[in-house]
Amino acid sequence: MEFELKTIEHMIYLIRGQKVMIDSDLAKLYKVETKRLNEQVRRNTDRFPEDFMFQLNAEEYEFLKSQIATSKDGRGGKQKLPLVFTENGVAMLSSVLNSKEAIRVNISIMRIFTRLRSFHMLEKDVARKIGEIKNDTNRMFKVVFERLDDLESERPVLPQKRRKIGLRVK
Questions:
Q1: Is residue 130 part of a domain?
Q2: Does the predicted TM-score (pTM) go above 0.70?
């Protein structure tokens, strides 16, 4: 079964400020059981430092379960808290899951991470430009209001007591 890039993109979550993928989603993509994927990771722990992979805590897992459909506790669901892999961790998985399928899937995942990174950079650039426009606009309004204040102070002072214009009615 061929996975579309959109399908993989929806498997990427933001946890602890990092874009990560869950072990069970990766296992589906690699067409292996989650426990087999995790076995390979445990056999090669030196390849997965904390910035490549970490285990979710209970609070993070509960939040994640509310975001995605997962089985209920006590009905064949996860017995352990899931592992999540950062972009570097996913890249490292291809070295411990040595199959053509793993390499093919990894290439797709890396392309998505790269695309997400470029969107993030574009978003930052747009935000910076909007900030510049706001600053320019604020400066222009300041100049306009200063000029209006100058015009107000230049206005001739009219005498307080003026003769009324019009007909006098008795």
A1: no
A2: no
Is 32 inside any structural domain? yes
- What single DSSP character describes residue 99? S
Secondary structure of 16-79 as H, E, C letters: CCEEEEEHHHHHHHHCCCHHHHHHHHHHCHHHCCCCCEEECCHHHHHHHHHHCCCCCCCCCCCC
Q: What is the DSSP letter of 161?
A: S
Q: Is the pLDDT of residue 73 over 70?
A: no
Residue 65 in contact with residue 24, Cβ under 8 Å? Answer: no
Model confidence pLDDT, tens digit, residues 51-61: 999 999 988 88
For residue 89, which of 64, 104, 106, 103 has the smallest C-alpha distance?
106
Phi, psi of 75, rounded to the nearest 5 degrees:
-125, 50
Asked if residue 165 belongs to a domain, the reply is no
**How many Cβ atoms from other residues are within 10 Å of residue 9's Cβ?**
13
Domain count, the chain: 1
CATH of residue 86's domain is: 3.10.260
- For residue 41, is pLDDT > 70? yes
Tokens of 3: 């996975």
- High-pLDDT (> 90) share of the chain, %: 9
